């Protein structure tokens, strides 16, 4: 036997933080259930994640012990609820390294967060006096990409329809990466906003942002990153990312549905006009007119999803306790394993990067001649839960010439044996339709 | 195993060896229906000879359920009188809307009875109905009286006459 000497300086990944996946799984009650007589193999976390007991307990405890409305009550439970709600804001801010909790605006989900920015542009463009960075009209351009979820396409199409601005986009390369070859021309002095996805929900691609950010700064535009798929899976630092806004959603990161986040630079949020009017977002109201609260309250009209926000705080605590770096590494190893395993399935074609670099644990594929709905149905009969369809990213399907794909997506509780179950399930699919 | 109920041999056979596939001329009217949630699509043409549906031709792409359903549609309705076609159509829609509680009439539905299992999977009922709803639109466009408008607001329809 020869001993291989590892050259000094080579990364050996010994110092990468790890966790015991079985210990993590024990925190998720739903993972113990059966589907069609099989132990459930949940491979649809890019759609929505499962929830650990710690988050479910936080939700229950809030309603059982601290329920009151926020920001308006002098009584004890109202004060406790307000503290818990604002405490959650602080936890979320720390989780993404936001300089201040006031930069975290709670929304319903990512879609609402993106629409909030789009409508702030609209409102700033009506009449005069809007901040010039948010004023948009004919001749101005907004740049997105072909890789976007519909939630980062349609709000901008609507904004362009309302204002006469022009929508442009980055293409996608054959290997499923952003085509930045025309960056200089695409992002130019007419560009007001660039909004693109940090990690693709269909291709799994994690986009490198530095080059685009640099160009956005050169031309004086604003940058929004859709981090719906990245915040749950990798360490995110908004200072390091150097974006102006990011959007993400709680339900994909172990929290309940109904709570999302718009993070924005403090001075930009302060310059943004309100979008929803109502209680909590005002400073003074007279019958003749109103003045508005500073952010984040300015953008949180009405009673917010209080318990959901508190539970998001618990989810952030849970994820931080395990460590985002450890979660990222777990998924990277799983992705490498799954890419190799799927490569053994005859007739299987992967859309998106086929190497576990610059991508996350979301893998879309086609099985030769078999429709994704049929694939998903047979897999479900085997207890394997995957997403089928266009994944709200229809332009990506069109780009790759397919009506739909089958998508398996992983999270911190996913195991290699679940990847094996997927591969076995695909054999069954081939038997039924072969 | 449950999935066997869904993918009856009959359905798989129609999917792998579709009957009457392809768009034929002449035709009285056609309709193109899309299922926006999965991107499945089908075009159905209706040819008429006096009061008879002389041919139902179709083309499309999609899952085994939607494509097999189009094949069964062709088989069941081609050559039928408008009245008979209406009866079969109504029976198929009733079967698919029955959540598995409707016992299908084999005399009337022929191979269509194989879709009884599909009715237990709410997510797939739309797949099975896609060609039938396109047929209904095409028939209405061709002047065949077929009851009230489309049952499914989620489906977009483009109808044109020849």
What report would you give on this structure?
The complex is a heterodimer of chains A (434) and B (162). Chain A is α/β, with parallel strands linked by helices. Chain A has 2 domains: 21-44 and 323-433, Aspartate Aminotransferase, domain 1 (Alpha-Beta Complex), CATH 3.90.1150; 56-321, Aspartate Aminotransferase, domain 2 (3-Layer(aba) Sandwich). Chain A is 37% helix and 17% strand. Chain A contains 14 helices and 18 strands. An 8-stranded mixed beta sheet of chain A has the order 4-11-10-9-8-5-6-7, sandwiched between helices. A 4-stranded antiparallel beta sheet of chain A has the order 14-15-18-17, covered by helices on one side. Chain A has a two-stranded antiparallel ribbon with strand order 1-2. In chain A, helix 3 (76-95) crosses helix 10, helix 11 (324-343) runs parallel beside helix 14 (416-433) and helix 12 packs across helix 14 (416-433). The longest helix of chain A is centred in the first third of the chain and has 20 residues, at 76-95. The N and C termini of chain A lie far apart (46 Å). The model of chain A has no long low-confidence stretch (mean pLDDT 95). Chain B has 162 residues and is α+β, with helices and mostly antiparallel strands. Chain B has one domain: Sufe protein. Chain: A. Chain B is built from 6 helices and 5 strands; from the N terminus they run ααβββαβαααβ. Chain B is globular and about 40 Å long. Chain B starts with a helix and ends with a strand. Classes of the chains: A alpha/beta (434), B alpha+beta (162). The interface between A and B is medium-sized, with 19 and 19 residues.
Write a brief structural summary.
The complex is a heterodimer of chains A (434) and B (162). With 434 residues, chain A is of the alpha/beta class. In chain A, 37% of the residues lie in helices and 17% in strands.
């Amino acid at each position: 036997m020869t001993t291989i000497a590892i050259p000094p300086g080579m990364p050996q990944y010994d110092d990468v933080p790890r966790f015991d996946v079985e210990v993590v799984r024990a925190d998720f009650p739903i993972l113990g259930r059966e589907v069609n007589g099989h132990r459930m193999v949940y491979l649809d976390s890019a759609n929505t994640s499962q929830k650990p007991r710690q988050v479910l307990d936080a939700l229950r405890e809030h309603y059982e012990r601290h329920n009151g409305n926020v920001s308006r009550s002098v009584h004890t439970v109202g004060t406790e609820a307000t503290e818990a709600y604002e405490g959650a804001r602080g936890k979320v801010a720390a989780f993404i390294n936001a300089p201040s909790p006031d930069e975290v605006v709670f929304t319903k989900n990512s879609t609402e967060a993106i629409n909030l920015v789009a409508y702030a542009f609209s409102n700033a463009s009506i009449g005069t006096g809007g901040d010039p960075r948010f004023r948009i009209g004919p001749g101005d351009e907004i740049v997105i990409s072909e890789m976007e979820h519909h939630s980062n396409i349609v709000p901008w199409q609507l904004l362009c329809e309302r204002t006469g601005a022009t929508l442009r986009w980055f293409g996608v390369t054959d290997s499923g990466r952003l085509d930045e070859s025309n960056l200089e021309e695409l992002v130019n002095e007419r560009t007001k906003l660039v909004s693109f996805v940090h990690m693709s929900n269909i291709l799994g691609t994690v986009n490198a942002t530095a080059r685009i950010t640099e160009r956005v700064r050169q031309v004086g535009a604003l940058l929004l990153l859709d981090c719906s798929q990245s915040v749950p899976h990798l360490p995110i630092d908004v200072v390091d990312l150097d974006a102006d806004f990011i959007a993400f959603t709680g339900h994909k990161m172990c929290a309940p549905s109904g709570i999302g986040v718009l993070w924005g630079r403090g001075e930009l949020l302060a310059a943004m006009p309100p979008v929803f009017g109502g209680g909590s977002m005002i400073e003074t109201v007279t019958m003749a007119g109103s003045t508005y609260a500073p952010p984040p309250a300015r953008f949180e009209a009405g009673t917010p999803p209080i318990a959901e926000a508190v539970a998001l705080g618990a989810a952030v605590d849970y994820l931080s306790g395990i460590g985002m770096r450890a979660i990222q590494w777990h998924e990277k190893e799983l992705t490498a394993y799954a890419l190799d395993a799927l490569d053994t399935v005859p007739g299987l074609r992967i859309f998106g990067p086929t190497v576990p670099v610059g991508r996350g644990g979301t893998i879309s594929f086609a099985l030769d001649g078999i429709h994704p709905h049929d694939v998903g149905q047979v897999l479900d009969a085997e207890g394997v839960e995957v997403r089928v369809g266009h994944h709200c990213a229809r332009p990506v399907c069109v780009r790759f010439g397919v009506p739909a794909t089958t998508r398996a997506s992983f999270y911190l509780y996913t195991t290699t044996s679940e990847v094996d179950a997927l591969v076995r399930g695909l054999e069954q699919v081939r038997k039924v339709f072969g | 195993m449950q999935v066997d109920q869904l993918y009856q041999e009959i359905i798989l056979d129609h999917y792998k060896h579709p009957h009457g596939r392809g768009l034929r001329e002449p035709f009285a009217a056609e309709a193109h229906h899309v299922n926006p949630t999965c991107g499945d699509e089908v075009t159905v043409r209706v040819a008429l000879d006096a009061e008879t549906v002389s041919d139902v031709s179709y083309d499309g792409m999609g899952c085994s359920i939607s494509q097999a359903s189009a094949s069964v549609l062709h088989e069941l309705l081609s050559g039928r009188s408008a009245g008979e076609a209406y009866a079969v159509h109504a029976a198929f829609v009733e079967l698919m809307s029955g959540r598995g509680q409707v016992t299908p009439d084999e005399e009337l539905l022929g191979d269509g009875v194989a879709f009884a299992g599909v009715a237990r999977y709410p997510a797939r009922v739309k797949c099975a109905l896609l060609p039938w709803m396109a047929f209904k639109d095409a028939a209405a466009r061709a002047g065949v009286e077929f009851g009230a408008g489309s049952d499914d607001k989620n489906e977009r329809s483009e109808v044109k006459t020849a």
